[in-house]
Amino acid sequence: MKSSKRPISYQDAGVSIDEGDRAVSYIRGLAAKTFNKQVLSQIGGFGGGYHLKGWKDPVLVSSIDGVGTKLKVAVLAKRHDTVGQDLVNHCVNDIMVQGAQPLFFLDYFAAGKLQAEVVRDVVAGIALACRQNGCALIGGETAEMPGMYAEEDYDLAGCIVGVVEKKRLITGARIQAGDVLVGLPSTGLHTNGYSLARKLLFEVAGYRLDSYVKELGTTVAEALLAIHRSYRAAITTLHDAGWLKGAAHITGGGITENLPRILPAGLAAQIDTKAWTIPPLFELLRQIGQVPEEDYRRTFNLGVGMIFAVSETKVEAARALLARRKERSFVLGVVVKSKSGRRVIYT
Length: 347
Description:
This protein is α+β, with helices and mostly antiparallel strands. It has helices at 17-32, 70-77, 83-96, 116-133, 194-204, 220-224, 232-241, 254-258, 280-289, 293-299, 315-324, and strands spanning 58-66, 101-111, 136-144, 154-165, 180-185, 212-213, 218-219, 246-249, 267-271, 304-310, 330-337, 344-346. It has eleven helices and twelve strands.
């Protein structure tokens, strides 16, 4: 057995405990700003504690997700303050379509080489979105993993837990033929389709991050790093009014794969493709790659980030209520009986 001629530390293996401590010092301050009276622990413990009180028959709803290869854009642009917001808002939307209000959030950050300032910027975005969505950042994990990731790369994931009274759980079970589908606009790609978008924009079209694209009215970096928005206020508005039968967060898979997740058996969504204008970014991507129609609709949200199912008798009142909350909406289809087995029918 060979042995080293000199002592070898963790630092020699590529892991800096000191840099990790610096990162945690940033996180501790940022997370504390999201705490409320229900948080029973501090950052740095072995687990986060949250006191659930004031509920009669609570159902906990949880979700875990990541940001995908949008992170590659953030790394190349050296801008890390938006992806944390993307992460939280995505997770918030996923539990709120079931009627759950966010309680707390935990994050996972792993890098090839830990840079405390990068961690700080990412977590600052997470903390900001947590405050905006009314949830507490109560813990997480920061890992330095040389050999697993390239030095400049990092991965990001988050777990959210929310709560809803059992009788107010949104399941889609009440949706029936004749109900109207109301769409809410997205703010760009959100967090899906970036592998295809990067290939088309950078490899095929030859754009750089700082390229100004006339069709978009902005640079490629700004277009791609647009923040995945939260629909918390809109969902809460219609749910509190008692008019929300179902809600679908349009993420990976587009309308084609996400909307059927809330439809009872035997029903389909008939979508009017002329009901909204597809934003220029998506049309640009389609033109660059001559993307097949089916792939186009299954890869991107195409400007629709959330879909609500509302009774036909309540749709105008629901849209008026959303408008008073400064939320733009559009009727994009109707629920019909499925005769062919297809769950989404584009017209």
